[in-house]
Structures are given as structure tokens and as C-alpha cells.
Amino acid sequence: QASQRIRNFSIIAHIDHGKSTLADRLIEYTGALSKREMEEQVLDSMDLERERGITIKLQTVRLSYQAKDGEIYELNLIDTPGHVDFTYEVSRSLAACEGALLVVDAVQGIEAQTLANVYLALENDLELISVINKIDLPSAEPERVKQEIEDIIGLDASEAILASAKTGIGIEEILERVVTMVPPPKGDDQAPLKALIFDSKFDAYKGAISYVRVVEGRIAKGTTMQMMSTGKTFEVTEVGVFAPSMRLVDELKAGQVGFVAASIKNVKDTQVGDTITDAENPAAEPLSGYRKATPMVFCGLYTVEASDYNRLRDSLEKLHLNDASLIFEPETSVALGFGFRCGFLGLLHMEIIQERLEREYDLNLITTAPSVIYKVTTIKGEVLNIDNPSNLPKVDQIVSIEEPIVKASVLVPAEFVGPIMELNQEKRGTYCNMDYVSTNRVKLVYELPLSEIVFDYFDELKSRTKGYASLDYELAGYKATDLVKIDILLNGELVDALSFIVHKEKAYHRGRKLVEKLRSIIPRQMFEIPIQSVIGSRVIARETVNAMRKDVLSKCYGGDISRKRKLLEKQKAGKKRMKQVGNVEIPQDAFMAVLKIE
Ligand code: GDP
Ligand code: MG
Q: Could you say which residues bind GTP here (predicted)?
């Protein structure tokens, strides 16, 4: 049977351990593309992914490989992102596979995301093949890493493949191992159709395209497909595979991975996790879908020019089509006008969306500091979900405020345990446990408020461990805490977009630091600007931006013309990111200042 020669697998790894490079080598080796045709990293197709060297959206590619047994195999490779924000995407791709390459950097060893991804793979019953990558590096220690794989993960590492995605060592061995170790997909291609949508995308010509793993039955051009969650039907116009660009095929059947187009106008009709069946011979039960992605971090997005508002909305809608985990709804700020409150999986996700909006849609944005969702119980007995600090009810209306808590695991060399414990203490963490995962590596588990992670945890973690620590976290629940809101007044007027929520014990300190920081960020204007931070009606700190001296430019007259031009250009560039709030001009940096104080 043909499906005996299909292998569906993905690559899992901690970020930077070499997934994308390895995927490229596999594509190159199997001749899906010649070396010349290969752009640096084929699978990371978004510009941003290439520049940052990270994978954001999962990608799939079909490879054709003639194994040593003489048979030609169809290998479907699904690349996965490695950052903690995108664990959701990883779990989606794994549900479409029977096996996974577990890639571990021969220098770095096992990291927090390696473990997190292994757990996901085990949940999905995947066959794991260990690959120790980057053995070309002089500092590679494959034997130590093998030991870690055995000690920490409990996999037999004696068979681990030593590879270099850079030089090509081990590539053939990997392909052979995929063929012999990863089981062929089961699924009956004569049964009623069941195809899992693991991703979807909008194409201007083909309409909404579903990326599917056919689990049972078959789907072809002309099939009347039915979405099992909504009952809606569509006639299939095209089916195809990624090789690695889209290529049409006659049909996709049980075990295969590819795409389906049906002139669907609305991407909402191709929901990720839904099951496609055949309307004429429907399956009785849908496949088990996915857990929904929950946004954890929120911020306000506003355009510098009010007239760009509609463009921002259109752009958010377009991005949402490709990335259902991005959510947004209109909000109004007294200070910033009309904008959107957007929800993201994490900070990296937030940065990436902002950057895409600015680059791909040419928008000039003001972003407010990120916030988590607080659960607020009011004296009326209501429970409100507050994702924008400025919407927090007045103190006398509040019975309690609960904040999200995450369970965070940090993997770190033993010498850094002290600094990490200190950091977690400062971040209001609760110690859970500590494990020696190998002779020199420790896994520390803490419960931490998510808001502290959003604040500056990553940067602190990195600097206090010289970059040796890695972090993974998941939502663990909500906990009532003593929290207060700090408001900022500029020139006596409340700037709602600068309000933030903070633990009572840190309130005074942060309120003070923020006004100091704001004073250094807000440029001098023609008049004096007092900056105050207040809790309720109590002022806790005050600074003043002095009025501008009129002779800033006149100094240059008659002098160096190029210096003057530079100064003017600098002012102009600065202007682009200024927002007029009342009669004060506030630069973008001011809205992020709260993240940069300590
Ligand atoms: P990903 O985040 O797991 O997708 O990692 P990438 O594939 O983007 O690789 C991260 C970095 O490691 C890049 O700079 C690669 O060039 C480099 N890299 C990947 N594989 C190897 C390897 O086998 N040897 C060496 N020396 N560098 C590698
Ligand atoms: Mg990558």
C-alpha cells in the first residue's frame, strides 16, 4: 500500500539549536531544490523570520527520498517554532505527525524549550529520533549531551545521530532513520473523509486555504467538503502539496499532508483544529481538535496619524487571517484617541506583530506598555476581566484583584542557582522545587506573577546568568494580590495610556522611577511640564520638564550648515513617533518607559 511509504515528521528543538538549518539541508539533500535555488532558509519564508533568524509560523514541505532499501518515500516535514510564545503552534504541527527529530545543540545541551517540546511530542505519541547538531564546532561535546538526553529526558541516546546541519554531516543518516523508525500513518483511505486543519492562510486568488493532514479517506478537486464544526459546505477547487512551493496534485488521501482550496471568502470558515469531511459521505465524529491559544499579554495600538485608523484596522484583520492567536478590539484612549486593544501570546509575539504592521503595512504606530489580564471583583459582586489598566474601577469599588500566575522552569548551570533565586525573590516568586538534571545543571521551578515576566524578566535572567539560563512557562492560575494602579499626570492632565498596575510594595519605587524616566524622555517644549505619578488622588512623585531655551537652533546660524541640517533631521525623525496629547508632545518611548525602569 502506498501509505506504507509515507512518513510525517517534524523537528523539535530549543531556539537556535538548528531546526531551520537542518530542514534546509534535508530539502537540499532530497533535491526538492538545488543549492542555487535555495534562498538562505527556505522554510522561514517571512522576511522578518529571516532577519531575526527565528521561525514564527509553521511551514510544511513534501520531500521525496530514495532510501537504501531502494524504495522512494514521501516525507512530509513540518517545521515548528521554538520560542515559548509559540508552543501553541508546535502542538498543532505535532498532531499531524507520527515522529519527530529531537535536535539538541552539541554545545548548549538540553534547554528549557527542548524539554517542553519533548513533553508535547510524548503527549502526541510521537517516535523521537535524537539528533545532536553542530558537531562541527570545536567546543561540541556530543558525549556530554548524550548523557543529558539520557538523564534528563530518559531516552536511549546510544543511537543518537551526530550531525552538522551546517556542513551536512549526518543528513543521510537522519533521512534513513526517519524511514526506518517513524511509523507510516495508519488511517484507512476508504473510510469517510476526516482531515485535520492545522493551519490556514488567505490567498488573494485561491481564497482561504486550509493546510490539512488527511487522517482518513480522501479529498480531491470536486469533493463537496463540509466543516464539521459549522456544517458549512464548499466545493474543493484545488488540492496540492508544498514541494516546497505549492504544487497541485490529483488527490490527498489518508496519511498525507497538503493544502485544500475551495474559493472560501472568509478565513473564519477554515478554523484551525476543525475537521473537514465529505458532505456526501460524512464521518460520524470529528477528530479531536486543539486547545485554543490564549493571549496572555495585551497592549494598545494607536496610529500616530488619526487618519490611518482604518488602515490599522484592515491590517490587523489581514494579519489575524494568518495568525488566529492575535486578537484585537477597538478601544478609545482619552490621550491617544481611537485605537485597538490587542492580545498576544507573549512579548515576542507582540513585538513581531508590531514590526509586521509597521513594515508590511507601512503604519506609524504608538504602542502602550503591555499588560496582563486582571480579574477584578467589585462590590456589586461582578468579576471583570481587566486587560487595560486605565479601565480598573475606582479603589472603593474593588473587593479584590487577582493576577495571572505562571509556573516557570528555569534550566541553568549550577553556579547560577543563587542569582536566579535572588531574581525570583525580587519578582515575587514562590519556590516550588529544584532538581539536579545532570551533574552540573539545575532545573528550578517557581510560581511567578506573569506581570513580572512581562516587565523585564527575560533581560534580567539573561544578564544575571550570562545568557546561560533558559526559560519555559505556562499559565498556572490566578491569585489575589495587593495591587494598585498608578496614574500619570502631564501638565495636570491624566494620560490614561500611561497608567499601570503594580504590587503595592513596589508602587512608590516604580512611580518615582517612572516620572524620572519620563522627564528624560519628554522633550522640552515652549512651556514647563510638570509630571506627576498618583495613586487615587495622592501624588507620590513629581518631576518637571523645563521650558525650552529659544536659542537651540540659533546657535547654529552662521555656523556649520551640515550640523544644523542634522539637527533638523533629527527633530523630524523624532517627530514621526510623537503623539500630541493635550498640548504636550509625547514620544513613543514614553509609553514603554515603565518597562525600562529599575
Ligand atoms: P532554529 O532557531 O532552531 O531554527 O536555528 P537555526 O537553524 O536558525 O540556527 C541557529 C544558528 O545556528 C544559525 O546561525 C545557524 O547558522 C547555526 N547552525 C545551525 N546548525 C549548525 C551546525 O550544524 N553547525 C554550526 N556551526 N552552526 C549551525
Ligand atoms: Mg528557525
A: 16-21, 133-136
